[in-house]
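Before a colleague's protein record goes any further, I have to sign it off. Thanks in advance; the entry in question is below:
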Amino acid sequence: MLETEGGAVSPAYPRGDSPFSGLKPGDRIQVHPSIPRHNEHREYQIQRLEAGRIVLRERLADQPLSIPAASVAKVHSARGPKPALLVLKGRLQWITATRQWMVLPEQPPADSEHGLHKLASSSDDHVVEVIERLGQQGYSAWWVPVDEVREFLIQGGEIIYDADGRYLRTRDQRSEWILLARRPEAAALP
C-alpha cells in the first residue's frame, strides 16, 4: 500500500514495476513534452500516487493534474536540486476553451515549439464558433501571420488550442496565419 494524503491506496503495479517507483507525495517533478513548450519548465508537486496514476499540482489553487501510468514513457529521478522528470508517451496539452491541461496520445514533433496544428478556413463554422466562445470568455482573438507570432506571444498573447489539442492555422496567397488571442487578464494590461 502507498500512503497518500487521503490514506492508503493499492498500487496498480507491484512496487518495483510502477513507473512511479521512488516518487512520493511532496516531491517536485517536471512533465515533458508539454505544449506550449515553455511550460516544460513548470515544476509540479506530487499530491498523491493512486492506483495506476500520479496526481500533480503546480499551486494549491490549481486543479489537480492526473496522469495515467499508461501515458508515461519514463521517469528520471531527481538529482540534487533538480526535480524529477516525467516523460510522456504523448504530450501534456493546454486546451484554451476549458483552460485545463489534458494528457493526449500524439507525440508532438521535436522541432515544433507550438505542437500540432490543423488547417482551417477563417470562415469555417467551427472556427467562427471557437472565436465566439472565446469572446464570451473575454478573449480577443485574431489571425496573426506566422512570422509575427513570436512578437505577439512576447506581448502577452497566446496560441489558441482547440478541444483536440491542435492549434488552428490557415493560408492565403501572402502568408500562413495562426489563430491567437489575448487572455482576459492580458487584455487588461496597458
